[in-house]
Write a structure and sequence with these properties.
The chain has seven helices and no strands. It is an all-alpha fold. Helix 6 packs across helix 7. The longest helix is centred in the N-terminal third of the chain and has 42 residues. The termini are far apart.
Length: 161
């Protein structure tokens, strides 16, 4: 409902839109850095939101894997191993099932792999599948790494099998 009185004002309006910095007063020029900072903060917030969505997906897939533990005595034994080690090391079971690789989660995952091979009748591929679709060679490495870490601590563990 705004009427433009002449073509000259329309040309000025186009000039102002195409050259926003030329027509700004000193107060508006001083506000430009804050606008840039605001944009960078919005971008960072969007990145954090994407990370949270990704973490939620990982946790949901890990919870789906944990639900499989409810059937069978070997699965229940593995569920007990997972819960005890996670409680002792302060890690959530969903983190063990995820693809995260921070130090505490890896320690817990390796310990679970060692004790799962020791205490259950699962094969290496079966343990790997139940711990977030890991390969059997990953389980072999986890078992060896846990034994080596414990040996460095002065606790020598016997071979898993």
């Amino acid at each position: 409902m705004f009427a433009v009185s002449s073509s000259r004002t329309m040309a000025n309006a186009r000039f102002k839109v195409s050259n926003p910095h030329k027509e700004l007063d000193p107060v508006a020029k001083s506000e430009l850095p804050s606008v840039v900072m605001l944009r960078s903060e919005v971008i960072e917030m969007e990145r954090l939101a994407e990370r949270r969505r990704q973490a939620a997906k990982e946790i949901e897939s890990a919870n789906a894997i944990l639900r499989k533990f409810s059937v069978g005595s070997q699965n229940q034994r593995l569920a007990i191993i997972v819960s005890r080690i996670c409680k002792a090391l302060g890690v959530h079971p969903a983190e063990v099932m995820s693809e995260r690789r921070n130090k505490q989660v890896v320690k817990a995952r390796h310990a679970i792999m060692y004790w799962a091979i020791r205490q259950t009748r699962f094969s290496l591929p079966q343990v790997g599948h139940r711990l977030g679709r890991k390969d059997h060679t990953t389980v072999m490495h986890g078992v060896a790494a846990h034994r080596k870490r414990r040996a460095n601590d002065g606790r020598y563990l016997r071979p898993a099998r």
